[in-house]
Amino acid sequence: MRRKAALLGGITAAVLTLSTPTPAHAATGIFRATTPDGGWQTLGNPEDWRCWLVDGGGKARNNTDRIAYLYAEPGCRGNVIVARMNPGSSRDDLPIYWGVIFHI
């Protein structure tokens, strides 16, 4: 009986540990991209590892503390068109892109 109680207690602890959400991390700063109409789209303190829909092309400014990866397809599918856009970097020669993911 004690073995069953110990086993159940261990399983319960493991389930709780695995199901407890970890806090989300976010970049600090702003990512800006030009839009087809010549305006700017701005992402402030974007969450890490989330695909952000961006209607971008031409120029981008990564003024965050994270690396930005730009994708050719919505939903961050398809080719990565910029393998690394480092923190503090700018590009003025980008093709059309539809998604961006941030991480360290």
List the helices and strands and how they pair.
Elements: H1 2-19, E1 29-34, E2 40-44, E3 52-64, E4 67-73, E5 77-85, E6 89-103
Antiparallel strand pairs: 1-2, 1-3, 3-6, 4-5, 4-6
What is the CATH topology classification name? Answer: Gamma-B Crystallin, domain 1
Q: Tell me the β content.
A: over 45%
Major sheet size, sense and barrel closure: 6 strands, antiparallel
> What would you call the shape?
globular
Average pLDDT over all residues: 82
Radius of gyration: 20 Å
CATH domain class name: Mainly Beta
* Number of individual domains: 1
Helix content: 10-25%
DSSP strand count: 6
Structural class: alpha+beta
Low-confidence regions: 3-23
Please report the distance between the alpha carbons of the first and last residues: 49 Å
Order of helices and strands: HEEEEEE
Please, how many helices?
1
- Order of strands, widest sheet: 2-1-3-6-4-5
Signal peptide: 1-26
Keywords: Signal
